[in-house]
Fold this protein.
Amino acid sequence: MQAEQEDRFQEFVRARWSHLVRTAYLLTGDVHHAEDLTQTALAKAYRSWRRISRADNPEAYVRRMLVSCNSDRFRKRRVTESLTAAPPETAGRDESAGRVEERGSLLAGLARLPARQRAVVVLRYWEDLSEAEVAEVLGCSTGTVKSQASKGLAKLRAYPGLYIGRTVSGGRGGSR
């Protein structure tokens, strides 16, 4: 990789590392898996950085790699995992995510969702992506995103640790 491309990649990693790890944590529920997943996705991105950096939104491309790497992790090992009740210590406090106990309840509720529903809910409501963007990241139709989001939110609303009437999105805003 040329020095200029190398510098751009390093700048991208420095700027987006914590955000990507936080997304990976929401997908995996474990800070160590999240960091490993982020490193794996970034290693793949590094190999193709010349092409990725020319894309309109390199972060969206890397985010899709993150979701794909997470899916690959389950295909290879078929291990059942559960999310932890506490957020990772390295993730900064996100004021919009609410109090710690609400976040813990949300993470526990997310842990009960199937992987596809969890990915849709995280990308749609935490990352605040549009339905079309989520569909692109997951490689499915917008109808699938809508149905998986609806089913996932219904399960989260029924989860006893979450309060009815409060939003389950911890992201930057509501739906688009």
